[in-house]
């Protein structure tokens, strides 16, 4: 350093005198220390020489002359450039000094002492900065998405599922647990040596959320779910629901069998009761669980125990791709009226796939061509499907009004309503039939029609699935169904675990198929008889 050289040069004199001024300190992204030395008109008695290296690698020549008259002569004006920096990846500390030498008497040893103190203090501050940087880097590494150890392919698949939940799941408290800590513990402690072990680890992770609708889908189930929403399903062709009769065997009732499907060819008909699926009793089995068990890869088999009347059958069915028509309709004629008012259009909607809204419109047009002037929409045992289809079908019946509020942890984030542009049946009397198998998109539709006073609801409280799921595909072809939001009806009712409450009950023995429904109107003596006035008046 130039300062060190001047000090050494001055040390040969018993009382050397120097002068300096204009010391400037600044913090910059890069640093340069510049020394300007001015020659004095003093006699030359001795001469010293030193060389320093600048940041450009070239030597800087310093010469001084010290004599008995305690003077200093520098024969040329030199500029000394030096950079002092500390690079730590996050900070750069730099200083700049400008010295001009003139005739001011200052003891240079004080300068040297001051510089030594500065160096000591700077070293301490630099050490503190480095310690802080290391601490920050250490803490931040704890919160990185990937742990510091080597990750296997199975670990990466688990992390992909973890990140999907982290970004999309509605509950950012993750059921009261540290989601980051769970990830680290799982990667350390859960076996993930095979794909099956990884799937088990993912399922175990999802179970901690205590949300039955956020679930893992193996590749075949993910494909089956996608095909089901597109209007085709790999299964046995059954639409199932809960039993309504208090007597008889416990189990799930067959609502309908797809024409030409494996179940229909085996002789299963509407009203039959499924007692077991693959030797697992359906007594306490939900329709979601049963539907997943009935679906599977094309060509695989499933064993059913079915009660048809007094007889019990054990059937071995082979799954195949079955086309699903989500809508069935027919005309019910009331006896004795002799005019068009006796005709009621019955529409059974079994699912909300991509064909649902179009099929409902076609059914309405077909029934109108037969001069019906009232409708019954049967949503019993409709477990839902595509959320947008539920909204579109609501628009068919509503000329205006809110359909549903979409909410997250912060409150309402979106509103779906009807502006009348898609409405084709806003004036005819409408009754809607629901039960505990009415869920998800079906509840959105039923709640919208009830709260807007467009329809009268009959039946029992619905399932109470007030949450919305989105499906995410993982890199190996598997997938996740993740709860991303909840919804409220137009009256701001959160129906989760409560359901939509109907306006009136239905008889316990009220049939679930179109033919049985019409018979209740046509036979006044039947136990399920409901007349037109009861059906459409509030």
UniProtKB/TrEMBL annotation:
Residues 222-295 form the PDZ domain. One of its GO terms (molecular function) is serine-type endopeptidase activity. Its EC number is 3.4.21.102. This is C-terminal processing peptidase. InterPro entries: ClpP/crotonase-like_dom_sf (IPR029045), PDZ (IPR001478), PDZ_6 (IPR041489), PDZ_sf (IPR036034), Peptidase_S41A (IPR004447), Tail-specific_protease (IPR005151). It holds the Pfam family PDZ_6. It catalyses: The enzyme shows specific recognition of a C-terminal tripeptide, Xaa-Yaa-Zaa, in which Xaa is preferably Ala or Leu, Yaa is preferably Ala or Tyr, and Zaa is preferably Ala, but then cleaves at a variable distance from the C-terminus. A typical cleavage is -Ala-Ala-|-Arg-Ala-Ala-Lys-Glu-Asn-Tyr-Ala-Leu-Ala-Ala. CDD domains: cpPDZ_CPP-like, Peptidase_S41_CPP. One of its GO terms (biological process) is proteolysis.
